[in-house]
Amino acid sequence: MAELLQFVSSGLTVGAIYALVGLGFTLIYKASDIINFAQGEFVMLGGMMTVFVAMADVPLPVAALIAAIVTAGVGLALHRFAIEPARGASPVVLIMITIGASIFLRGIAQIVFDKRFHSLPPLFGSDPIQFGGAAILPQSLAVLGGAAFIVILLWLFIERTLLGKAVIATSANRLAARLIGIDTRQIVDFSFVVSAVIGAIAGILITPIALTSYDVGTLLALKGFAAAMLGGIGSAPGAVVGGLLLGMIEAMTAGYLSSNYKDAVAFLIILIVLIAIPQGLFGRAKIERV
Amino acid sequence: MLSIENVTSAYGRIEVLHGVTLHVEVGEIVTLIGANGAGKTTLLHAISGVQPITGGTIKFAGMPIEKRPAHARVAFGISQVPEGRQLFAPLSVKDNLRLGAWLRRGADLKSDIARICALFPMLESMWEKPAGALSGGQQQMLAIGRALMAKPRLLLLDEPSMGLAPNMVDHVLSVIRALKDDGLTILLVEQNAPAALAIADRAYVLETGRVALSGTAADIKADRRVREAYLGL
Ligand SMILES: Nc1ncnc2c1ncn2[C@@H]1O[C@H](COP(=O)(O)OP(=O)(O)OP(=O)(O)O)[C@@H](O)[C@H]1O
Ligand SMILES: [Mg+2]
Questions:
Q1: Which residues contact B108 (CB under 8 A, 6 or more apart)?
Q2: How many CA atoms lie within 13 A of A36 on its CB side?
Q3: Is domain A2-276 classified as CATH 1.20.272?
Q4: Which of the listed residues B7, B33, B36, B42 should we mutate to test ligand 1's pocket, taking the one with most ligand atoms within 8 A of CB?
Q5: Which stretches of chain B sit within 8 Å of chain A by CB?
Q6: Can you say whether the dihedral through the CA atoms of A240, A246, A249, A250 is positive or negative?
Q7: Rg (CA), chain A
Q8: Ligand 1 centroid vs B33 CA: distance in angstroms?
Q9: First to last CA, chain B
Q10: Residue A22: strand, helix, or coil
Q11: What is the ipTM of this complex?
């Protein structure tokens, strides 16, 4: 029982990070139909930049803030200078561009930062909290709380603000959005910025637990994408549930089987789910009437 | 109010508008009729700035607008009710209307919304329903309402009668008349030529990307070719 609890807590923690990365995918996909494989680099930039700014004797919260702002700028630049000029190209070309951008960002990070692993001090100390026989890291709670906060904020934004509705409108019908005067390029700009910030926060939250280095983005992008697919690409609740589920599956496999198999088992399960329900758990089959 | 000169437009390398010239004066209803694929939708898209043009000029209130982005043209006062309604299906009736006033966000929209509800009372009972769940007629009402929320000076309508039951068609036409009487200038694209000519002041006939004929609605109605090709007489 204590063991199970231990696995659940670590599964939820990484799952929350996957969920955030998946949300980043979802937001950009919704606004622009682009699958942004540079999403993982936002996570890397958030963590690495916080580490290196903090090294220059900047207080941690300020360093984190700077990292989030710079990452937002990187997200905006990615859209303006890499994606937007190729507007109208086929989706495959746009995906290739985001993959190219992610390789580029990794290369830059390797030069600007370094190739070592880095950590950050945990937010609330490192003494594990004993709970039902399991030892839970305070940082795990910070990750979960932070992720929950972002999810709620995003939900409120989409449901309660006109700008949020404009994002939905752009996603639902781009032509109509332009015809009512929505500058859809700005909406996509905005989705890249928000996705970048969400990625950066994920990176900052997870670094005290999982360490970071210039190349952590690749696998995270893959996991976040898998989470989004599992939940149904384009569905925000789907990305959250998909992420948490993926984290749980990994933690259970690692705990009860072997951590060597955790990625393989996770992807296998996703494959099976997607063969059974191709639109994902929360994806809507297209039955809209025209 | 709107003056289009020699406009050409293409999809890829295939030109579909071969130099269209037409004008719409303040307070008029001008109709543009033509067969399937004549280029009517392409022309309206060009006016709204969602379809690039390869030549010619488009002036609105004397000002060249062909280089301005789509959202700027809405701000100038050009709204479009697009072919096939193009509503935001997952959003509610209310949100579709609020978004129609996107460029006036922050303004008090109460009186505008009240006006739309007076025009289309049936929308009120569907207020919180997603637009995708409405019937065809209701969707058309909402599409017109959404375009009006931008407070346009010129309204472009692309086949508003398409797919509607006859009594619905009559209702839509009477609404268009009422909007004209309120001072709105209207460019109405229709395949339903009898209906369009019944309410229009002037008409243009578009054939494979060219204006084949133009004149007062009465003249066009009386034209032998139009009677054969478009009025089925
Ligand atoms: N997206 C597109 N890509 C390529 N060709 C197009 C596209 N849209 C329209 N066309 C072509 O351009 C020509 C004009 O089409 P358009 O839709 O403007 O005609 P229309 O007069 O509005 O027809 P309808 O009455 O059927 O709505 C047609 O030959 C059509 O096949
Ligand atoms: Mg058309």
A1: none
A2: 36
A3: no
A4: B42
A5: 48-50, 69-71, 74-75, 79-80, 82, 84, 86-91, 95, 98-100, 102-103, 105, 132, 146-147, 150
A6: negative
A7: 19
A8: 14
A9: 34
A10: helix
A11: 0.93
- For residue B91 the two structure tokens come to 């959003």
pTM of the model: 0.90
Q: How many whole angstroms separate alpha carbon B193 and alpha carbon B57?
A: 27
List of chain B residues whose C-beta atoms are within 8 Å of the C-beta of residue A168: 88, 90-91
Name the residue in chain B with its Cα closest to that of A176: B86
Kindly report the nearest CA distance between residue A8 and chain B, in angstroms.
Answer: 35
Q: Go through the domains of chain B in sequence order and give each one's CATH number.
A: 2-77+152-229 (3.40.50.300), 87-150 (no CATH)
pLDDT per residue, tens digit, chain B (233 aa), is: 999 999 999 998 999 999 999 999 999 999 999 988 999 999 999 999 999 999 999 999 999 999 999 999 999 999 999 999 999 999 999 999 999 999 998 888 888 999 999 989 888 888 899 999 998 889 999 999 999 999 999 999 999 998 888 888 999 999 999 999 999 999 999 988 888 999 999 999 999 999 999 989 888 888 877 777 777 66
Whether residue B36 contacts residue B208, with contact meaning beta carbons closer than 8 Å, is answered with: no
